[in-house]
Design a protein that fits this description.
Shape: globular
Largest sheet: 8 strands, mixed
CATH topology: Rossmann fold
Strand content: 15-25%
Number of helices: 6
Structural class: alpha/beta
Radius of gyration: 16 Å
CATH superfamily: Alpha/Beta hydrolase fold, catalytic domain
């Protein structure tokens, strides 16, 4: 492992994804156990305070993190007006794959197992990415996610998947339960009591962070390739 390339603070990176360049914040601690790629959704960017909080929790446990903007500045402006691109799961999944491929090509991260953390519509994109390029990802966590948006790709997902939903988010609980029925991989649904869709209640997001950390620790515990 090229420890000389690692950073103790996050650095802004640029990832080529087809015709566009996407910005991200990469944090790789020394002796990282693995790296988790965050797929945002519902108009969020890499600066989402909820995902930043979860990322910091994972970093403290020895995981690297890559928080990505899955849309360019111009695309974000268009999406703010129309809300269209946040539901373009195919487009977003292609960009998750591009970011994961970039991690595999970068010397400092090429030997690390990769996990996906998807929020809201980003969870659907992460699952489609996991289905289409299973060799890139070892585990998936969804926070308040819309796995149903992955459609027929759900049954192709091989990475162990943890679905985390707020106990007050009844519609999303139902959507996650339906998605679980379509999935063939190891999967689990965790419901955070009394939490809403955004996990804004005291302690709710910390609960999410602990669940995610445990899932990734279990499934990204070594650096073997996905078969």
């Amino acid at each position: 492992m090229h420890t000389d390339l690692r950073h103790e603070s996050s650095v802004e990176v640029r990832v080529s994804a087809g015709p566009v360049i996407l910005k991200g914040d990469l944090f790789i601690p020394q002796h990282a156990r693995a790296v988790v790629l965050f797929a945002h959704g519902s108009g969020s960017s890499r600066f989402s305070p909820r995902n930043v909080m979860v990322a910091e929790s994972l970093q403290s446990a020895g995981f690297g993190t890559l928080l990505m903007d899955l849309l360019t500045h111009d695309e974000e402006a268009f999406d703010a007006r129309t809300g269209e691109l946040r539901f373009d799961v195919q487009l977003l999944s292609e960009r998750v794959i591009a970011a994961a491929s970039w991690l595999r090509e970068r010397p400092a991260t090429s030997g690390l197992a990769i996990g996906y953390f998807g929020a809201s519509t980003g969870a659907g994109a992460a699952l489609v990415a996991a289905a289409h390029r299973p060799e890139l990802v070892r585990a998936v966590v969804s926070r308040g996610g819309r796995p149903d948006l992955a459609g027929d790709a759900l049954e192709l997902v091989r990475a162990p998947t943890l679905l985390i939903v707020g106990g007050s988010d009844e519609l999303v609980i139902e959507l996650n339960q339906q998605a679980m029925m379509a999935m063939q991989c190891e999967r689990r649904l965790e419901i955070v009591p009394d939490a809403s869709h955004l996990f804004e209640e005291p302690g709710a997001l910390q609960h999410v962070a602990v669940l995610a950390q445990r899932w990734f620790a279990k499934h990204l515990s070594d650096n073997k390739e996905v078969e």
